[in-house]
Amino acid sequence: MLLIWLLKKTDTDDNVLFYLPVTKAWLAQLVLCLMLHGRVSFRDIQQIIKDCLDYNVPVGTVHNISNRAKYNALEINATQHLSSIKLAAPDEIFHFNKPILAGVDIHSLYCYLLSEEDHRDEETWAIRLLELKDRGFKPDRIIGDDGKGMRSAHKLIMPDIPFDYDNFHLSKLLMDTRRYFRKRYKSSITERLNTMDKMRKLDFSDISSHRIELLQGIVEQENTLKYLSNTMDTLVSWMQHDVLNKAGKNPQERQNLYDFVVNEFSKLEKIHPHRIDKMCVTLKAKRDQSLAFCDVLNLKFSALAKDHKCPLELVWRICELLRCKIGSDAYAIRSLPLYDLLGDQFEEIEDAVIIALCSTERTSSMVENLNSRLRLSFDMRREIGHDFLGLLQLFLNHKPFLRSSKAHRVGKTPTKILNGKPHPHWLEMLGYTQFKRTA
Fold first, then answer.
1. Does 251 lie in the same domain as 193?
2. Cα separation of 155 and 158, whole Å?
3. Residue 258 lies in a domain
4. pLDDT in tens, 249-292
5. Positive or negative CA dihedral for 354, 357, 359, 363?
């Protein structure tokens, strides 16, 4: 009986909440919201309007509404000034083998570049960077992967701006190599057990010297892979937790440890060059670019030490202390000497170090996040087009974040976070008047 009562239609279901004046302008806004918020295809938009409003909208009309919005969006995007971008992350994404150049401000997630191209070479990137420079684009730092054309163009157009190597790609390379050797080691164990099982089923007279040599070779291979896998685990752990972790030692000690780890990888390369040789080449070439975030931290810590009139070494020791969980036994034991040296200043300096760590970036994960959101809009289209990307860029830059791990982003749009100024709703920017219910 309770279930029947719950399923029974109540009187309030048919009560009129408010009246909506459906005009062509309102339908155009609905079309754009379905297309951008819901990522709905043109024909599905037509069917939704037919089902909900009993009104036929031709597919050509939906197409025309989209085109008008695209042209307006391109004009608006071209007027946006980019001088507020201080930390940029460029990248390349592909759709049906055509490159799309993307770029995002790491602090605000403002998308400053979104362009479909025929190529991703130095010339193409250079043209886009020159266009961005005309709009005031001059960040303090750039973080990106190892795209050849992208890096060459930035070196050509913006030679005075540091281009750091994204730690995420370096960590991924290390973890992929570690995973490969773990699997090889497990496979060698399986191969040994299978070979031994086959030999047990044979008579002693049937076990030839050849089979014994084969088993010995398999055992030797297993021992070699065990050594490689275990050593790889240790070295990758050191690199991730001791070198690339923001909370850690000062720049010089990190460089020394980085060189030590790379040297140990080189020893493994002599035993088993597959995969390790290419990884060593990358590690040797990317040391300074990968550890550039340490230099940024060192500048912040130097200013912090000057303000509190304490040695820079003590600030870095607090940074290393933060590798321990606050409140743990390890933290309590290691913090005692610092308490004795700094006294009441300890907590104040520690808070400032935490703020410095949180505000220092070492990856371009924000542009990877952008790429994942773009994929949702690309999947339903074979042809993207520069115009649609302009509309999508306007939408993403003026759509408020409903939730975020960063408190300063919640309820704000990337444009407002970047410029610190309010702006009209993205539909109003495209020339429409939003529907407002009367009080």
1. yes
2. 5
3. yes
4. 999 999 999 999 999 999 999 999 999 999 999 999 999 999 99
5. negative
Residue 381's pLDDT band (cuts 50, 70, 90):
low
Strands (DSSP E) found in 220-369: none
Residue 251 DSSP SS3: helix
Residues 301 and 262 in one domain: no
116 pairs with which residues across the strands? Answer: 100
In whole angstroms, what separates CA 97 from the centre of its chain?
A: 21
Last residue of a domain, one of 254, 269, 290: 290
The answer to whether residues 172 and 280 belong to one domain is yes
Task: Let me know how long the chain is.
Answer: 439
SS3 361: coil
Position 145 pLDDT exceeds 80: yes
Clarify whether residues 230 and 181 are in a common domain: yes
Q: Identify whether residues 233 and 316 lie together within a single domain.
A: no
Judge whether 425 and 398 are in contact, CB under 8 Å. yes
Q: Which domain holds residue 267?
A: 167-290
Distance CA 336, CA 304 (A): 21
> Looking at 333, 358, 383, which one is the last position of a domain?
358
Which of 420, 418, 423 has the alpha carbon at shortest distance from 109? Answer: 418
Q: What is the mean pLDDT of residues 414-422?
A: 93
231 and 281 share one domain: yes
377 vs 194: which has the higher pLDDT:
194
Establish if 260 belongs to a structural domain: yes
248 and 312 within one domain: no
DSSP state of 400: P
Count CB neighbours of 267 within 10 A.
10
Q: Which of 235, 226, 93 is CA-nearest to residue 171?
A: 235
Residues 248 and 339 in one domain: no
- Number of domains the chain is built from: 2
Q: Over the stretch 9-55, which tens digit does the pLDDT of each residue have?
A: 555 677 888 888 889 999 999 999 999 998 888 899 999 999 999 99
Question: pLDDT band at 8, cuts 50/70/90?
Answer: low
Neighbours of 313 (CB within 10 A): 10
Residue 77 domain-assigned?
no
The encoded tokens of residue 197 equal 């099982």
The average confidence (pLDDT) of the chain is 90
Tell whether 51 is covered by a domain.
no
Question: Dihedral sign, CA of 394, 395, 399, 405?
Answer: negative
Residues forming beta bridges with residue 66, ordered by sequence position: none
pTM score, whole prediction:
0.86
